[in-house]
Amino acid sequence: MTAATDCPSGFTIVPGLRPEHVEIAAAGYWNAFSGKLRYPLGPEQKAVAFLRQVLNPSHAMSAVSEDGGFLGVAGFKTPDGAFVGGGMKEMAQFYGWVGGLARGLLIGILERECEKDTLLMDGIFVLPVARGLGVGSALLRAVEHRAQSLRLKQVRLDVIDENPRARALYLRMGFAPAATMSIGPLRYVFGFRSATTMLKRVGDEQGLVPRPA
How far is CA 98 from each of CA 40, 44, 49, 105, 110, rounded to the nearest angstrom? Predict the structure, then answer.
């Protein structure tokens, strides 16, 4: 683990997710991504309980206020695991074997495999009370530093068409669109029409990755 990173505006970015923050992080993750997870993981009570069980603190960077409160988190995925883990055993525990299998198949559609030399982001959100303080930007920079420490060459994230504010942030932080994929009729299940893959080279001041020819 890297040391805590001091940031402006009265908050700090720290590696991991503190035990006392797991509950609020699970609820915050659901609030941030319930639009596309409502069918795979809903209803809310079960979804938050499931997330609380499967969140992997070792694959996250957290924003913490001066008084120790949770402000936001950026999760990531490597070959060793993901921020949102769990498998069929955990799905069955909360949804039953039949329901767990069906929901697992839906989740599988959203899954992305780790690529060589790439750190894959696994969700980022900031609590409403902390928006506008630069928390999201600080979390993204912390993820880039983590990628550097792992000797990876770039960070990848995917942003849906229904979240233009997030896309604007990623562009400001130096991420460049690489590819856009439409999900067709599945938009009625996940609540979005397309997702854009964005990339940023680690250690590159501009961070821009050329679009494929």
Answer: 13, 19, 18, 11, 19
Name the nearest CA neighbour of 54 among 15, 7, 20, 22: 22
pTM reported for the whole predicted model: 0.88
Look at the block and give the residue holding tokens 């067709």: 184
Which pLDDT tens digits describe the chain residue by residue (213 residues)?
344 554 546 899 999 999 999 999 999 999 999 999 999 999 999 999 999 999 999 999 999 999 999 999 999 998 888 999 988 899 999 999 999 999 999 998 888 888 889 999 999 999 999 999 999 999 999 999 999 999 999 999 999 999 999 999 999 999 999 999 999 999 999 999 999 999 999 975 444 443 333
Structure tokens at 172: 């400001």
Chain Cα centroid distance, residue 74: 5
